[in-house]
Structure prediction request, 136 residues.
Amino acid sequence: MRAVFLSAGGDPFLSLFVMKLWKERWYDEVDQFYICYNNHANVLLNVAQEFIKRATEDSKVEIIYHPRGCGNGTPITEMTLISKADNIMLLEDDGFIFEKGAVNENFQKIESDLCDAVGSPRGSCGQEIWDASQKK
Prediction:
């Protein structure tokens, strides 16, 4: 089973755009889509509620909501604890995936034991993780 973990900082426009791309271009490449929506941007409660309503219309989506910002570490931990997925993709709300098949291609690298992890070309992770990935 494949899952996406979207750590969203509260701007519903960005998160909805990520979800639009997912539905249009790589929906069938993952089984579940987890969103930890932590309202770091302090959007109004009714806006947050509308985002949650829209996002959960899809049966693949599960949401965790925090009314205040909590960074990315806590959301990733929470999504890991509730997910039963064998493989996960970490995605932030500015992670726009335009190319159909790109997600599948990268999951297949992991599933066929070609690698243990695939990272963003921009190296969006801690320096220790980035350095270790370059050695492997």
